[in-house]
Amino acid sequence: MKGQVKLLLLLLVAPCLLLTLASDDCFAVSDCLYEGVSFSDGAVSCQTGHQFRCNDGSWSSLDLSCAAPAPSPTVINPADCNCTPAELANCDSSGQACCVSIEFGRCVKKCCQRQ
């Protein structure tokens, strides 16, 4: 009887084991993450001035220097560039107005003469 139970278990378990081993998940290659971005296996990324290659979910240094791409400029909407109540009060206390300008893509606020 014990032999029959073992054979029955083997017949039930073996196909499941073979299906699991043959599934795509067994041979899947892992992606790598850098700064929240997913890179596929084999991809190269410039990280802190050095090149790294994604190797099955892990970064491997290529011992090569690189220049990270410049960050894209931030677009300022002039309508969003306003003086805060505290800035208005500060300028008003000296008899001036709070003036706003956009310089080099940044919102610049300063006290200036009233017009």
Task: Give me some keywords for this one.
about 120 residues, alpha+beta, 2 domains, 3-stranded antiparallel beta sheet, two-stranded antiparallel sheet, 7 strands, about 30% helix, about 35% strand, rod-shaped
Quick structural gist:
This protein is 30% helix and 33% strand. It is an alpha+beta fold.
Distance separating the two termini: 103 Å
* Whole-number count of domains: 2
Q: Which overall shape is indicated by the principal axes computed on the Cα atoms?
A: rod-shaped
Tally the beta strands: 7
Number of helices: 3
Rounded to an integer in angstroms, the radius of gyration calculated over CA atoms is 31 Å
The proportion of residues in beta strands is: 25-35%
Structural class: alpha+beta
pLDDT averaged over residues: 76
Q: Helix coverage percent of residues?
A: 25-40%
Unreliable parts: 7-13, 16-26
- Widest β-sheet, arrangement of strands: 3-4-5
What does this structure look like?
- The protein has 115 residues and is of the alpha+beta class.
- It is 30% helix and 33% strand.
- The chain has two domains: 2-65, no CATH class; 78-112, no CATH class.
- The protein has helices at residues 2-22, 24-27, 85-93; strands at 32-34, 37-39, 44-47, 50-55, 58-65, 97-103, 106-112.
- The longest helix is centred in the N-terminal third of the chain and has 21 residues, at 2-22.
- The chain is rod-shaped and about 65 Å long.
- The model is unreliable at 7-13 and 16-26 (pLDDT under 50).
